[in-house]
Amino acid sequence: MASPVTTQDKTLLASLYETIYTIRVFESEGIKLYRKGLIRGYFHPYTGEEAIAVGVCAALREQDYITSTHRGHGHCIARGADIRKMTAELLGRATGYCRGRGGSMHIADMSAGNLGANGVVGAGTPLGVGAALGTSIRGEDRVTACFTSDGAVMNGTFGEALNLAAAWSLPFVLVVENNQYAVSTPVEQTTRELDLYKRGQGMGVHSVGIDGNDVVTVYDTMQDAIGRCQAGEGPVMIECRTFRHGGHHVNDPGLYLPQDKLQHYLEHDPLTVARQYLMDAGATEAEVADIDARVEASNEDAIAFAIDSPEPDLAEFLEEVEANE
Amino acid sequence: MASPVTTQDKTLLASLYETIYTIRVFESEGIKLYRKGLIRGYFHPYTGEEAIAVGVCAALREQDYITSTHRGHGHCIARGADIRKMTAELLGRATGYCRGRGGSMHIADMSAGNLGANGVVGAGTPLGVGAALGTSIRGEDRVTACFTSDGAVMNGTFGEALNLAAAWSLPFVLVVENNQYAVSTPVEQTTRELDLYKRGQGMGVHSVGIDGNDVVTVYDTMQDAIGRCQAGEGPVMIECRTFRHGGHHVNDPGLYLPQDKLQHYLEHDPLTVARQYLMDAGATEAEVADIDARVEASNEDAIAFAIDSPEPDLAEFLEEVEANE
Amino acid sequence: MSNEPRTLMYREALNEALMEEMRRDDTVFVMGEGIAERGGSYKVTAGLLAEFGEKRVIDTPLAEASFTGAGIGAALTGMRPVVELLFIDFALLTLDQVINQAAKLKFMTGGQGNVPFVMRTQGGTGNGVAAQHSQSLEAIFYHAPGLNVVMPSCPHDAKGLLKTAVRHNDPVIFIEHKLLYMNEGPVPTDDYLIPFGQGDIKRRGSDVTLIAWSNMIPRSLTAADKLAAEGINVEVVDPRTLVPLDKELILDSVRRTEHVVIVQEAVRRGGVASDIASIIQAEAFDYLDAPIEIVAGLNTQIPFNLTLEAACVPQEDDIIAAVKRAVYA
Amino acid sequence: MSNEPRTLMYREALNEALMEEMRRDDTVFVMGEGIAERGGSYKVTAGLLAEFGEKRVIDTPLAEASFTGAGIGAALTGMRPVVELLFIDFALLTLDQVINQAAKLKFMTGGQGNVPFVMRTQGGTGNGVAAQHSQSLEAIFYHAPGLNVVMPSCPHDAKGLLKTAVRHNDPVIFIEHKLLYMNEGPVPTDDYLIPFGQGDIKRRGSDVTLIAWSNMIPRSLTAADKLAAEGINVEVVDPRTLVPLDKELILDSVRRTEHVVIVQEAVRRGGVASDIASIIQAEAFDYLDAPIEIVAGLNTQIPFNLTLEAACVPQEDDIIAAVKRAVYA
Ligand SMILES: Cc1ncc(C[n+]2csc(CCOP(=O)(O)OP(=O)(O)O)c2C)c(N)n1
Ligand SMILES: Cc1ncc(C[n+]2csc(CCOP(=O)(O)OP(=O)(O)O)c2C)c(N)n1
Ligand SMILES: [Mg+2]
Ligand SMILES: [Mg+2]
């Protein structure tokens, strides 16, 4: 599946690996902050699914849009967000992306075309169709990639929105992160057809199912999808098979996850896979260690920045509310 | 496609023909009442689509349920309704099925397991899934057939509800009346995949596309579907291809319908097809004329009954409202 | 160019507003069911396809939640969509997109994204279209922070408010009334806008303040004429936009007349009338000589039969009786 | 069997209600997301799967509109479903089914079909779950004819009302509060039901009538204790069911105290408090010594940051200040 061009592009592979590791560290350190009580509300870690966001966003161009989900930190980072502002937002600080109004479930980075996470499963997909519709009306060469999830595929917005994109031939890519669970409910229990991409085919949409833990496969598939969109053949649906490394959110131990399956995916870890690609393309242990160190340092810096940041100003907030009356 | 058993069953074929003709007359006379101002609100004629309701309902057993649509007169009649009470309801009379509260878009006949028409396109499908769920919990041998439409297939309830039925293996049959138009919008404009049944296949549902104007084909397919449901293999999706003989509702001239297509379907008329089956099974012209006369007489009787019926009592209505405060 | 008002129908005034705004700004586009070639069920979008083409005048599949969401997403990324929903009753399919997304996106993102999104829809009873096509649901939108709620009662207001809605940077729920489309009234020739939050006194009077909106305005004006013949002078106040609400106009009038009647077509329980009453009693308590009279729809689903239907929503006689109760209390 | 009340948590009381009703009537079943093996996010359905099996304790896909609709369809055909919706915010996905179907089916069919359907859900702010998981949306259901709206404030009421809800023949929206689940209170051992439309005086007092529900009750009771120390005797009235509303209990209390405060967590604009105020001013106008004070959520989406969040909904101090304003007006 993996294209030889990609597997030999050491610079690209280094960047893919670095971003995956950035997400990995962001989440594991974030969980610690959560346990210390510095982060409140819901926190859904992306650990184990990083290759999807990273492969997709690496293929996207600057002008493209993404929409994200409740499990959105990875998408945000892969789309180039400043992790200082992300961490500050998770801590509810004035310096965060949403000035402390949004938190984890609503992080957005409009400057990078990230239209935002979403607390309502499935709700981002119609928004993404709208972004793609706008570009199509304006006649621009932009693609919108919507991240969504296996749970969301069972929701009405999936069929409605993908069908709209198809009927209107929009430059739209639906990226389904099929981690095989919606909280504690396995996908086997919520559908008869486990190949979710077949639903896209049933609507006349070019749809494929791929290994979502293999960043090169994701990247190549997304490149192809962008090409199809540019050729006016859009939309495309990409089902990425993956698995969480833990519970649904920080407070869920995830005991319902079958051990053998979890073990399989822990071994077929997106980070390990990406590292192997990089090594195969000629990187040395030292080079990789350098990347790791850089990533860890910048995450420490982001945390320090966030902790030092002020809380949002209450009076200012109340004035805003008043002004919107 | 048509099974020889069915094509040789003269009694059955006579009954299928009679019901189709009953609907045909009910609608054409209803339109006249509408034009006279005796019927108000919306009136969506079923003319041209009768074979679907009739084929499906003939296969159903007494204990089964149906849900209907905004274009529901045919379903109601095919499920055995009393056309006196139907006509009275269309005229908003106290003797109508809904005591004048519902009208055309909300006719229901719970006594016959007809859970009702629906003014919201697509909304009846989840209700039908619920009826099927109830029978499955109670362990009863009952099938629920949901009539729905091409427009409704583009709505969220389609994918959600059919998927629920599939995940739970319910005795549920989704009958899509694909008349190729949603008001003035052709289905080509609202989807890429014109074989709507492929969407069901994408969800792992046994799904077929058939000629909806051929009552025997509909009947045989429905028989097969009921068998599958009884065997615990449900649900089933049946896409019935058909066409309206006129506008979307009484006040729509339907000028947007392509003449050649309309002509094709006017010739491939469910009434003609059913009549031919009946004749081929050995009925005489005189026998058919008898049926026709009986149908026409009983429709006249229904209209007379409705016109003679009282309006709902206002004081009684206001008391009911008060009691529900 | 002279500014002699012409007589237009409500639907023609709306059509002009769309035409003008689409000419002025090519990020404006319209979508909905049967709005292009067919021009919409009430002909409000007639002629737009011919002038602006299918990229900007879009017929949608029957997927209310998602084409509404698509409008919101387009708005978030630089467009100005006007989405038509055939009946406000079907807005119940779209509320996650409207309330959880459109109304909250600017807030949740800390101001990063604006949603200049307009939903045009129509509500109210009319001619036996029964329980699922007759509702007056403005109270739902009124209660959701982040939405503007507009309910014009005449062609003049319809045009000026729709143009303002299209230019507004936050979501607007623009609610028409199925019985108003054919009503005629004067509409200026020149370009004009009506600001949100600016109510209008449709009739001056000194005895009682009657607050109403949408189709209850023409009905109240007729009632007021009859009451005038009996020597009762009714001031008819039309807030025109429920959010933002022109409290000052209402309170000024109440302080002058000291008697209040509020007329709403929506069901009595939990309607906007209750909220306006609660504001008046809080802010003009000492001026009130008598309880505020609310004339509203009965707390019931709307029946099909025309006689029953009429009994469920305020009629002229109900309004006259309430005014008398308020004045003679 | 003695009827000594035990101390139970709100969530345990709810769980007992479901257990008892499912034992009593095998047409009762529950469905929702993660409610079977997992027992629900708040453990209200814990243990049901083990006792009643997977036919009657059903985990659903993430298809809120349709599993709600399926509950309604099952209700129409002889079952008594209790559908759990994780957050009331997601109820916005289901409103066509709830308002256009469940609430109207009996009416539209002229009484042919009943819909004994219960939606259990939870609302309110709590611990930074932000704008899409913190709403108080009872006003929407309150405005829709045909629905009962229940909002228990303590374990005793939660159990008795949920049992009544399950046995009710019309749809019930049963709204819990995310901050109440762990609250403890006495619950009788014997089977008991609490009728709809029967409010409860949670604290007797003579100076002012304070009306509140759900999580605003414990908060108001604490405020009332503090006010008592200052010599102000607050009567705290909990309607328990908003539809039907125990108007008589409210009006009786108001006629005795002549001062009214209404406390609601939902946003001020268009909330249920406004409607209750409108009823009081209409029916007890001559008893009111001062304007009705409404203490309510700000007209805003709920922010993530905890300090900002707390500023958006009524706190103890806000309640105390409002009572003083009402009493000393
Ligand atoms: C519409 C809606 N329903 C329910 C929830 C509660 N919820 C949050 S995440 C989640 C599970 C989602 O599973 P999936 O869609 O597969 O995404 P994943 O968490 O696996 O990434 C649920 C039920 C929600 N946020 N939105
Ligand atoms: C949810 C919803 N959206 C829109 C409408 C208005 N409407 C009534 S019938 C109809 C067309 C439906 O087309 P289709 O579903 O194909 O059914 P058909 O009329 O062809 O039988 C529309 C748009 C409605 N009743 N419900
Ligand atoms: Mg998942
Ligand atoms: Mg059709």
In the residues of chain C, how many domains can be counted? 2
Order of helix and strand elements from N to C terminus of chain C: EHEHEHEHEHEHEEEEHEEHEHEHH
Distance between the termini of chain C: 52 Å
- Strand segment tally of chain A: 7
The level of helicity of chain C is: 25-40%
Unreliably modeled segments of chain A = none
Main beta sheet of chain C: 7 strands, mixed
Can you lay out the helices and strands and say which pair or pack?
The complex is a heterotetramer, with two copies of chain A (325 residues) and two copies of chain C (329 residues).
Chain A: H1 4-7, H2 10-35, H3 50-59, E1 65-67, H4 73-78, H5 83-90, H6 124-138, E2 144-149, H7 150-153, H8 156-167, E3 172-178, E4 181-182, E5 185-186, H9 187-190, H10 197-202, E6 206-211, H11 215-230, E7 236-241, H12 259-267, H13 270-280, H14 285-308, H15 314-323
Parallel strand pairs in A: 1-2, 2-3, 3-7, 6-7
Antiparallel strand pairs in A: 4-5
Chain C: E1 6-9, H1 10-24, E2 28-32, H2 48-52, E3 57-59, H3 64-76, E4 80-85, H4 95-108, E5 118-123, H5 138-142, E6 148-150, H6 155-167, E7 172-177, E8 184-187, E9 200-203, E10 208-211, H7 216-229, E11 234-238, E12 241-243, H8 247-257, E13 260-267, H9 272-283, E14 293-297, H10 306-312, H11 316-328
Parallel strand pairs in C: 2-3, 2-4, 4-5, 5-7, 6-7, 10-11, 10-13, 13-14
Antiparallel strand pairs in C: 1-8, 6-12, 9-11
Helix pairs in contact in C: 1-6, 3-4, 7-11
Bound molecules: thiamine diphosphate (2 copies) and magnesium ion (2 copies).
Residues 149-151, 179, 181-182 of chain B line the site of one magnesium ion.
